[in-house]
Amino acid sequence: MTPADLSRTVLHAVHRAVDENALRAPVPARVRVERTRPGGSGDYACAVALQLAGSAGMPALEVARILRERVAAEPGIGRVEITGPGFLSFTLDSPGDSDRAVLDAVREQGSAYGHGGALRDEVLQFHHAREVRAAVTADAVRRLVISQGARVRIRCEEASDPEWGLLGVTVDAYGTPPATPSAPLTPIRPVPAGATAGELLERLGADATRWGLLRPASHDRAPLGDELLVQGEANPLFRVRYAHARATALTRGAAALGFTSESDAAPAPYEGPARPLLDLLADHPRVLLAAARHRAPDRVARQLEAVAHAFFDFHDCCSPLPSGDEKPSAAHRSRLALAEAAGTVLAGGLSLLGISAPAHL
C-alpha cells in the first residue's frame, strides 16, 4: 500500500463514518498522511481527527476512535493506534496479506459476504402505495437492511396485487399505522413504473422486471423496454449474470484439468488488471451497508455492474485456465481464486436484488 493508497483508505473511512451517521462533519477533499517521525509509532500517521473535531463538535480523541474502527477493517492495514491528542498511526500489512484476507473472507462467507450487524439495533417499518415499483423497491430494501441485521416490517396502503408474488414480493400488513418511537414509519416512494406487474411479467419475466425497476435511482424513471432482454454486452443485467456464469464455468474447467483455486498460491499481491477487481470485492461490504442505510438498491446494481466489468477485463488479460499444453501453475490457482470470489459476490448481490444467478447462460 502506497501513501496515496493509505490516504484514500482513510478518506474512505471518513466517508463511511459520515454515511453511517457516526460522524457529522464535511468530508475533506483529501487526507494527508506522512511517514512517522523517528521515535514515533507505526509506518505512517495523519492528523485528520484533529482536522475534523471542530466541525464534528466532538473531541479529537473520539473522532480518532470512530475512524480507527473503520480504517482497521480495511485491507492492507495491520494495526491502527491513537497517539497524542488524536493522531492516527498506521502499521501496514505485508504485501499480499490483505488480498488473501479478502478472498478468504469471500470463500468462508459465500453469498453472505458483506452482510453484517451494523443495523442490528434497528426496528424498521416501511410502507408503500399499491404500485409495482414501490412494492419491488420495498422488497429489495427489506433484503438489504436484513442483511445488515435490522428487523423490518412492510405495509402496503391497500391490498397487494396478486401478481406481486411472482416477483418475489411479500407484504406483512395493509393500511398505514401510526409511527412509534421504536419503529418509525418510512415511506418507499419511487417514481411509478407506469405498468402493472402482470404487464411487465408477461413482457419481460421476473428477473428483467426486477432489474429494470431497481437499477435506476428511485427518483428517476425506470426504463422498461425490450433492451432488458438483449443477450449481449449492451445489457448490463446480461453482463452481470454472464460474468457469474463464466466464473462458475472456470471452476468446472479447472476441475476437469485437475486443479482448484488457492488464494495464497501467489507470493506477491494481485496487480495489473486484477487490482481493480480485488479492490471492488474489498469494497463490497461498505457498498451493501451504504445501500441499506440509504434505502438504495440501485447502489448494489451499479456495484455489480462494476464488478462484472472488472471481471471481464481481468479474465481477458489473465486467464485462470492454462492454454494448450501448459500445466496449471500457482498463478492459475490464484487467478481462479479471484474469479471465484467475483462470481460469489455477483451471486450474492443479485440475490439481494431478488434476481437469480444461473450457472449457465
From TrEMBL:
UniProt GO BP: arginyl-tRNA aminoacylation
Record's GO cellular component terms: cytoplasm
Positions of the DALR anticodon binding domain: 240-361
One MF term in the entry's GO annotations: arginine-tRNA ligase activity
Pfam families linked to this entry: Arg_tRNA_synt_N, DALR_1
InterPro entries (UniProt xref): Arg-tRNA-ligase, Arg-tRNA-synth_N, Arg-tRNA-synth_N_sf, DALR_anticod-bd, tRNAsynth_Ia_anticodon-bd
Record domain Arginyl tRNA synthetase N-terminal: where: 4-92
EC identifiers of the protein: 6.1.1.19
Reaction(s) catalysed by this chain's protein: tRNA(Arg) + L-arginine + ATP = L-arginyl-tRNA(Arg) + AMP + diphosphate
Alphabetic keyword roster: ATP-binding, Ligase, Nucleotide-binding
PANTHER family xrefs: ARGININE--TRNA LIGASE, CYTOPLASMIC, ARGINYL-TRNA SYNTHETASE
Protein name as annotated: arginine--tRNA ligase
Species whose genome carries this gene: Streptomyces arboris
Lineage: Bacteria, Bacillati, Actinomycetota, Actinomycetes, Kitasatosporales
